[in-house]
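The records we work with from here on pair a chain with its fold. The integers have meaning only within a learned vocabulary of local backbone shapes. A complete example follows; check for yourself that the lines match position by position.

:::
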Amino acid sequence: MHIDRYASEYRVGFGNTRKRSDLFGLAPAGWVGAEAKGRAGDMDLKLRRQLEA
């Protein structure tokens, strides 16, 4: 889900920082956040492994 749209509904806190994720969602192990970068084309294996980690 996009954080700008759902942050208040889900009471998302950002802590004491100016950095924040663009997207968040519930995964089997708990809540996760992800930064969305403008990309064209498929996701390479290195990026996929970083996101999974």
Summary: The CA atoms of residues 38 and 51 lie 15 Å apart. The first strand starts at residue 23 and ends at 27. The radius of gyration is 13 Å. Residues 3-52 form one domain.
